[in-house]
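Lecture 7 notes: from sequence to structure.

We start with a single chain of 86 residues. Read the sequence below before looking at the structure.
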Amino acid sequence: MALRMAHLGIEDYYQQSRNKVRDLEDLMEKYQLQPQEIIYVGDDIPDLGVMRRVGLAVAPKMRLRRFWPQHTTSLTAVAAKAWLET
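Now the structure, written as tokens:
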């Protein structure tokens, strides 16, 4: 993973994070970012805490169906964010 991230020029990444919200807060502080400046792609329950805090949260269609099977079509990023805020 480290080689791939270096190849892509990504300096900050977290594997097997135990506290994704804390990781988000650390990155926001390091780069002086506001939540509305962040896009987050999540695909599992542990991502929900971060997804509720960022400006734009998205999830792959196949993973959304796992948690919201009533949706037979892909939710748009805006709809997913609105759902997370309710």
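Residues 21 and 41 are 14 Å apart (CA to CA). Keep this in mind for problem set 3.
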